[in-house]
Structure prediction request, 537 residues.
Amino acid sequence: MVFPTLQFIVFFFCVLALNGMVWSRPVWRKAMLIAASYVFYAAWDVRFLALMIGVSLIAWLAGIGVTKPALRTFSKVTSITLLILTLGVFKYFNFFMLSFSQLLEGTAFARDLQWISIILPVGISFYIFQAISYVMDVDRGDVPVRRNATDVFLFISFFPQLVAGPIVRAAHFLPQIDNPKAPDRAARALAIILILMGLFKKMVVANYLSVLIVDPVYALPDGQNMITATAAMLGYAIQIYCDFSGYSDIAIGIALLLGYEFHRNFNQPYRAHSLRNFWQRWHISLSTWIRDYLYIPLGGNVGGALRSGIIVVLTMTLAGLWHGAGWNFLLWGFVHGAGLAVERMFRARNFALPYWLAVFVVFVIVCLLWVPFRAADFYETKAMFTALFTLDGFAPAELSATIWGLIAVGFVINILPMQWLGRSQAILSHAPASVQAVILAIGVWGIFAAAQDGVAPFIYFQF
Amino acid sequence: MKRFTITLIACLAVAWLLSGERFLDSVFEMVDLGQVDDIIIERVIWLEERKASLGLPDVFGAIRQSLHNVLGLG
Prediction:
């Protein structure tokens, strides 16, 4: 089930109504939300529901296990291994078999090694990361263990953030399960703004950019002129931002209407003045997860510049691989990591560019790095870079004003001072509940009217 | 919150009344729920027939057309 569909709207209204009915009965409320989350997930493929239940079961049992001294190491090692293996099999098996098969090609050992084709379950990376963080947080003593299975099952399956984040931390979410906050006028106002903003970013900006410029150019990158390739590169930078941050906004908004608060996942990333700052603004929940459960355990900033540089490159390469099983994602992560390491060296020597120049340089680097991220393979990547850097006398490109308009809208969203959010929320907070509902309904109706026909999946679903 | 939810559901009903046959199309795009699916489709078709007899305009379609023309979308 995808957010911007009538099917989801009907589903969500039912959940909202039921949530209100069982609000004062915690056991029923948790059970209802788990059931709703399972219906939401099963709408994609009911077979993978068993996988998610299995992951939740592992996390719950391991959480209890790590609190018992005799079982602590066994529970931690077994559960983390099982969870990583599950992710590995479903997400990376095909990639490794294909890569291995290609490696053997032309040798005496050449074999067709693609024995089985495994379908990637939607959102697997997100809920497995949450399961891992729960076990590790309980083990570290950051989160009290939950002996009640429903708490852990709800934490892992809660439908607003189930398939594409934000990656919620147990320490933040579990206390809310016991005491959700009934949404008052201010919370509803914020939820409405976030839902409408998210829908607009996804259904209007991201989807149209995808259809009008990004997909056609990336489908045939050979022979594109510089202007068209640049528009496609910029278009994708805006598309992926609007697509993913749009999903996060909607997720945060609908969770808020149900009484749960999530942290912000994006903070105008294209205003970043360094790559480090970019990762503090882009997919914040993943960046902090990687920092806390990968970078710091690997050694983090401890040791010399070379050692921490290698760790940051390794961490970012793994983060690239998290985004997808492909060499292009690996390259994307590796170059980001290398960039972060180089940036550190400059910082250590107190070298800094003027602020706006730094913002521009970082934006250009990030946009260029989106090329291998979006391209299907290295051949496509090379063709796009050739088009981007081939001076062809600025041949006139047949690009409509709509494309440039949508790219401009994306930029405006990125540079708009964030005070607008607080001000809009303050204005909408004065409206009574029924007026707020009408505003939400009219807004959604209008965005659906402006949107394209059909439902384009969110980019991050595949991760 | 009760008033908010009730108003939202009422708005959904109004949107259905003023959106032509789009809701019916969405029902056909739903995940196949087997026998439940048949019951839902049967009920929605019955409702759509009642709605058609009222002769309500497709306001959604008109807004959509205007927006797409003005903004050059599509």
